Amino acid sequence: MNNFSKNAGYKEPLKPYNLCRTAANAIYSVATLSQRIQALGHTGGSTFGRWYKSRRVNVDIQSAFLGTPSRKDLLEAIGKMGLRRHPQAAKSLTPDEKEKAIRQSEVLENLQTDAAEPRSCLIRDHKSLGSAKDADPTRTSKAISEPRKWLAKETPWI
Question: Region (Disordered) spans which residues (predicted)?
Fold first, then answer.
């Protein structure tokens, strides 16, 4: 087992106790006391609490303190989103629908214009994108970063 733990990248050697403790903590929330005793081969219920029970608290204290959903709840909600989706809803927009949505949103229209700007600047300054690859990167990065800064300021929800 020592070679296995070294090959797996663990600092300390892996021992059978580590595996037993991990298994005990995994079944703690899903098994009853008698099932745990039977699965782990113990003679009484106090063995688990004294030797195997994890010292980590399985409560999202930060979320409870801030009054926000826990990471586990958020992941469960995201995982169930597909179940709540209307089966006849469109999976993607047609090119005409995309164009209409962009025209209706000033922010999206500005983003579309700004997205083309760095490319057009490079072509204007260097005649082609191929010849622009040897250009000064600071000039190019400014042309790209300005729209990104604007986007971050205008659309904080993204």
Answer: 124-158
Q: Residue 28: helix, strand or coil by DSSP?
A: coil
> Which tokens hold the place of 41?
């081969």
Q: Using CB atoms within 10 Å of the CB of residue 122, give its burial: 0 to 12 exposed, 13 to 18 middle, 19+ buried.
A: buried
Q: Is 88 helix (H, G, I), strand (E, B) or coil?
A: coil
For residue 103, the one-letter residue type is R
108, 154 Cβ separation under 8 angstroms: no
Per-residue pLDDT, averaged over 110-135, amounts to 76
Q: Tokens 């904080």 appear where? A: 156
Identify whether the C-beta of residue 28 lies closer than 8 Å to the C-beta of residue 53: yes
pLDDT, one tens digit per residue, over 67-106 is 888 888 888 888 888 777 777 877 788 888 888 877 788 8
Pairwise CA distance, residues 97 & 114, whole Å: 21
How is the chain split into domains, by residue range?
A: 2-52, 59-89, 95-154
Residue 100, both tokens: 């209409």
Record the pTM: 0.30
Using CA atoms, how far apart are residues 151 and 109, in angstroms rounded to an integer?
A: 12
Q: Which of 87, 47, 154, 110 is nearest to 36 (CA)?
A: 47
What CA–CA distance (Å, rounded) separates 124 from 150? 23
